[in-house]
Design goal:
Blueprint: H1 3-14, E1 18-22, H2 28-34, E2 43-48, H3 52-57, H4 63-69, H5 74-88, E3 92-98, E4 112-118, E5 124-130, H6 135-155
Parallel strand pairs: 1-2, 1-3
Antiparallel strand pairs: 3-4, 4-5
Helix pairs in contact: 1-6
Length: 169
């Protein structure tokens, strides 16, 4: 079973739902989840907040945080996950933000990615990633990483906060 199918099965068994907030992945996380038959029983929806101001106006990320640190930040990822969870009325929220390239953004090098999970009762985690590879590889690895982070939270084996990985195979 693929990670998206496993996550959807775990959530369905618990009677819980999921919402997705994406930046650098541009809808790829939602696409991965909706490729699984029956995803509509669990997935509430997704928000692709590519523009920084949408992270504030739609996902309720603090404007001062965005001003001070930019959109690629551990706390921004955390607030995006919490914001989409609240906005879409889901049990769990997940988020991706980062720099896929080809140029650095907000002083952050290409491959800097944060993925986050926000769960019931304030549970959740954020992973700081330093990915290598092409733009497509970084985006693909970001999708895999946020799904892995959520699977870890659901199974009680949360992944380490800071990791270093290579994008691609």
């Amino acid at each position: 079973m693929n990670p998206a199918a496993e996550i959807l099965t775990m959530l369905a068994e618990r009677g819980q739902t999921l919402a997705v907030a994406e930046s650098l992945t541009g809808g790829l996380v939602a696409a991965e989840l909706t490729a699984v038959p029956g995803a509509s029983a669990v997935l509430r929806g997704s928000v692709t907040a590519y523009a920084t101001e949408l992270k504030h106006t739609v996902l309720d990320v603090e404007a001062d945080l965005l001003e001070a640190r930019g959109a690629v930040d551990v706390q921004v990822a955390r607030q995006m996950a919490a914001g989409v969870r609240t906005l879409l009325g889901a049990s769990w929220g997940i988020a991706t933000t980062g720099v896929a390239g080809p140029e650095p953004q907000d002083g952050k090098p290409v491959g800097t990615v944060y993925v986050a999970v926000a769960g019931p009762n304030g549970t959740g985690n954020v992973a700081a990633l330093r990915l290598n590879g092409s733009r497509a590889e970084i985006r693909r690895e970001s999708v895999r990483s946020v799904l892995e982070l959520l699977a870890g939270e659901l199974s009680g084996n949360a992944r380490a906060q800071d990791t270093e990985q290579n994008g691609g195979n």
